[in-house]
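Input chain follows. Return structure tokens only.
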Amino acid sequence: MQDFIIIRDIVIILLVSIPIIFLFNRLHIPSIVGFLVAGMIIGPYGFQLISESNQIKLMAEVGVILLLFTIGLELSIEKLFLMKRFLLLAGGLQVLLTIALSTIIFQLLDFPLNNSIFFGMLMSVSSTAIILKILYDRNELESPQGRIALGISLFQDLATVPMILLLPILGIASAETQINILLQLVFAFASVFLIIIVARFLMPRILYQLAKLKIKEVFTIGIILLLLGTAYLTHLIGLSFAIGAFVAGLILSESDYSHQIVSEILPFKDVFNSIFFVSIGMLLNLHLIIIIPSQIVFLVVGTILLKFLIVFGVVLLLRYPARVGILTGLILAQVGEFSFVLAQEGLGYNLFPADLFNAFLASAIFTMLLCAFLYQLSPIIADFFKFFEINIKQNELSNSLANYKNHVIIAGFGLNGRNLARVLMETGIKYIVIELNPETIRQEKKKGENIIFGDVTRKEILQQTSIGAALVFVIAISDPASSRRALVLAKELNPHIYIIVRTRYTSEIESLIALGADEVIPEEFETSLQIFSKVLRKFHIPLNVIMKQVSILRGESYDMMITEKPSAHLLINLNEILAAGLTDTFFVDDSNMFIGKSLSEINLRVETDATIIAIVRNGKTITNPSGSEILNLHDTIVITGTHQAVDDAFDYLSNKNV
């Protein structure tokens, strides 16, 4: 019976985790924190539902392997290149500064150098999962703070790989000479490099052979074999399993099968990762926390304050406004899941005193909990940092804005703002763009674009755009909080200005209109309307009827689609239209097999029950064509019949049923 104790432990983990995760989800707290709390409750220092955790630790190791594998798998050279500025500059500065300053602080507290560096590594990493959840919940993934935070977080995830490589060296730093340490470091990186070369050559060929078999089970087993095989190979040369898993993921990310691999591995990753975080929570000694509360408070406050200030400074160096620095700093001011991976690995190299390990676990969990709440207070905190605002020198455009009248102000130069600016330029309408990305400002000014740097939530910036004389203000930024603040401020400065706000979700329409927006364009239902229009077009509903239905939906401010209440006007005649006959046109392109054949040879009426009533050729219409009429290239055939007959005719003429 003792052999099956792990089954009981897994049942306990899942039984306790489900209600805790549900509760944390309702409180908008990331599930990682829920798993850690679940481990605290059921572990040997909690209610002792699980006292022996050796087998659980083994499953947690699998969770780490899958975690690093999926991180490698989700990366791509193209993605890294697009984020190079945030990834390398911001992320590199944040990690290096955090490690350096933390090392100095712990050295001043009389910790050995190797331990101090290790503690700095732990503090440098933030939780990607928590960052993504907060940004997603607040619809800020594409906002400036969202892009910077994700770039820094991605660099942190990548940096954990060399950090893990350094752990054995830090563990023996006090006993080995500097030359031996350097040789081991060179050997570690050379070994990983050799594995990457060999794996990059072999893996695509193995995947191709597995895919050729067209057996799903074989493909899945083959992926797991490549993953664990690479991990075991790195273990044999003295490195960790996790390094090999990351290498395998990185190589497979460039293959044609990466999306299928993700779908195969993701369910395993979620299960084993949950066990990993539960196992970490089980290690936390709650009794020790009561004994050393001052250490925990020091670590929590120190970690949040240090990481916040470093990120804040890095964002200012990127020449973004202080508000973006505050938001980015607050969201990154916690300790992440890879810190637990490093901590677990560090235990094996005696880099952690037992009491400090528990203090670290407790403080890390508290930073995760506090991060989400601090981010909610970010607008209030931002008001205390106005004096940090950076004023970038504008070109001559800023001095001539006072002459602008009846112009359009565009907030944000993303896809929507860029397209609108292009149309306004073609039509000769004056416009001014406000953008926060300094790199975009530099590039667009070289092209002669009417663009200035600034935060649309700042009164001074809006006044620079002559908002008092502007006719239209288009808010096309991916930051709901900033959109609302800019909307209110614009109405204060110019009560008569016509404001159009782009938003992602229809749930924000009512609040934005209440704040004074004249038009709210929700991307969510504009996409739905496009789908709706194309579906009706497939049923050959006349274009004027389709446009009327779409117009009704927009005219009702999407009320029917939000409240699910039937409209008295919508779809009123569609059943009658579907029941009646219709007329549609078919264009003959160069791939059509009926070119050069007569209408009698095509025999459309017999084949589909639809009738050709006219042919438009070279701008002239041939009505009631005879059976001897030859079908030419670029003819437009006018077809009539029932919906089914016209559908069949289109398929027949497109060679689908021939």
